[in-house]
Amino acid sequence: MSSRPISAPRERVNALVIRSAVVAAIGGLIFGFDTAVISGANDALKKQFDLDEGGLGLTVAIATVGTILGALIGGRLADRYGRKNLLFAIGVLYVMGSLGTALAPTHAFLMAFRFLGGVGVGLSSVCAPIYTAEIAPARIRGRLVGLVQFNIVLGILLAYLSNYIIQMIITDEKVAWRWMLGVMLIPSVVFLLLLVSVPETPRWLMSRGRNKEAVEISRRLCSTQAESEEQIAEIRQQLAADRTKGSRSDFFSRRYSKVIIFAFIIAMCNQLSGINAILYYAPEVMREAGASKDDAYLMSVAVGIMNLIATMAALTVIDKIGRRSLMIVGSIGYLLSLGFLTGVMFMYEGNFDSTSSLLVLVGLLFFIAAHAFGQGSVIWVFISEIFPNKVRGTGQSFGSLTHWVFAAVTTYAFPTIIGKLGGGFAFLIFFVCMCGQLFWVLKMMPETKGVPLEEMESKLGLK
């Protein structure tokens, strides 16, 4: 008879944890939808409001400016008013943004409400991962926080699909773009209604001295009484440790410099891959490569489907092989796909045709798969994990702010670079940046899978 011990069965995940994570992730779906939906309206907006390339770039990028503001203030708002209350505010901003942009009578009105919707996206990129990380057991935290990224990707696919269907059904461009932007109202209202059914996180409640509520919610979230007691004890220990550190708990202190650098690098590299620029301008990239208008919309849907498939694959393994392994695979995929796209763009420069458009589609599908399996699935999980409880909101805000600042830069510059230098140079720039990311992942990025949040500080060697 074998002497190997029989492993204990894994505890089932509490249904309330799953429901809460799914509801928070709906905010990510709207985040993704808002990111990509403008791609279908770009041509119509240029005609409707008589915009040149710079004007279109500003119209697209103004939402990203809003996300920068949302990311900047999101951590403080989440820490002051609570994760759940901020999610409600995000839902309201989504509703206002969708209605305002769909009904916009002037360009200034459109810009104002795109900015408001962008603020909601920025807040969501901070709050949703924090909320999910704080209610999730360590052993499945990667998958549950990854639901936010899955829903972002699903939102992008739904935006491309919605744009394709609307432009096929409504032939009048002056009407079609309003429907494209207004459809986001539906998931926004659903998000607000479902938020009523989820609790605040025990970690935030205890940080505000609301211990009785924290204990009650912890018992609802945990599978067993023992698990709840252990969670509460860990939170108390972490909060007590934070209080004794006094001024050393200031965010930009030497103590947090390591995780600040980690968050900055992963967020910066996420956008220097070119992902948001490509998502915002996917139909234009396809048409630049020789595709017809209808084919360009359909190709965008294919990009969205690949994004979803690769994200689903990543989420099945992120808690098994870890965050760093996914980043290595994704970084290598970036270099192969961006190198291929650079070559195709230079080879066919000035002579794009149906063959070049198919080659670019293949390259973009490979690029999207690499992003979704690596950076896309890791970034929000990694940033939500590495900061101690005391500064988690501020840390998530910092990472999100970095992400959106670089998103604004690449989004605004992308159409100008393509127009003046061509697609080959644009993809070459992204290729060089991803060489830097691969070096960082191989030499410096730590693994965080399976580490309880209260133990992360010790794991990363913060002093």
List keywords for this structure.
463 residues, mainly alpha, 21 helices, 0% strand
In a nutshell, what does this entry contain?
With about 475 residues, the protein is mostly helical. About 80% of the residues lie in helices and about 0% in strands.
Would you spell out the secondary-structure blueprint of this structure?
Layout: H1 15-37, H2 42-48, H3 53-81, H4 83-102, H5 107-135, H6 141-169, H7 173-182, H8 185-195, H9 202-207, H10 211-221, H11 225-244, H12 257-272, H13 275-280, H14 282-288, H15 293-317, H16 323-347, H17 354-373, H18 375-386, H19 392-421, H20 423-443, H21 456-459
Describe the fold and architecture.
Helices cover 78% and strands 0% of the residues. By secondary structure, the chain is mainly α.
Q: Give the proportion of residues in helices.
A: over 70%
Q: Calculate the mean pLDDT score and round it.
A: 86
The number of strands is 0
Overall shape: globular
What oligomeric state is this? single chain
Number of helices: 21
Rounded radius of gyration (Å): 22 Å
Biggest beta sheet summary: none
- Beta-sheet strand percentage? under 5%
How far is the first residue's CA from the last residue's CA?
Answer: 49 Å
Question: Which structural category do the helix and sheet elements fall into?
Answer: mainly alpha
